[in-house]
From TrEMBL:
Domain NAC-A/B: start-end pairs: 27-91
Bias (Basic and acidic residues) ranges: 148-160
Keyword check for Mitochondrion: no
Keyword set includes Transcription: yes
UniProt biased composition (Basic residues): 14-23
Native species: Rosa chinensis
Protein name per its UniProtKB record: Nascent polypeptide-associated complex subunit beta
CDD domains linked to this entry: NAC_BTF3
Length: 160
């Protein structure tokens, strides 16, 4: 009871508060980001309706985002509300946007999906073609060139 009576927060002769209350605003992070982007030299790109970011079999989709870019710094900023969707769901709507080089990648993705799905009989025929991209295994004392030549010789003998 004696100690409770001695506690007071103000008035003549009371001690000053030692800890200063810090009011932190959430806009400071955004301001720092904008100042950093301005230093890089980012320019706004108008009239972009949709941005799709492909990640394995998931697509992160932004509809009507704010897009900024700095080609010199190789920096792209996409801000907006993202939606995560599966590649199969979004595929019909983006086929018209793809160019000829992207169509080849799309075919490879389709082959991978066929291999992953159970009972895909057609997927087994394309398996030897995909092995060409792999790096040959090394044996002690051999070089990559020698291992690659041996692999080519094996493929030629199997083909004939």
């Amino acid at each position: 009871m004696k100690m409770a009576g001695a506690v007071r927060t103000g008035g003549k002769g009371s001690m000053r508060r030692k800890k200063k209350a810090v009011h932190k605003t959430t806009t400071t992070d955004d301001k720092r980001l904008q100042s950093t982007l301005k230093r890089i030299g980012v320019n706004a790109i108008p009239a972009i309706e949709e941005v799709n970011i492909f990640k394995d079999d998931v697509v992160i989709q932004f509809i009507n985002p704010k897009v900024q870019a700095s080609i010199a710094a190789n920096t792209w900023v996409v801000s907006g509300s993202p939606q995560t969707k599966k590649l199969q769901d979004i595929l019909p709507s983006i086929i018209s946007h793809l160019g000829p080089d992207n169509l080849d990648n799309l075919k490879k993705l389709a082959e991978q999906f066929q291999k992953q799905s159970p009972g895909a009989g057609a997927g087994g025929a394309t398996a030897p073609e995909d092995d060409d991209d792999e790096v040959p295994e090394l044996v002690a004392g051999e070089t990559f060139e020698a291992a690659a030549e041996e692999k080519d010789k094996k493929e030629e003998s199997q083909a004939s």
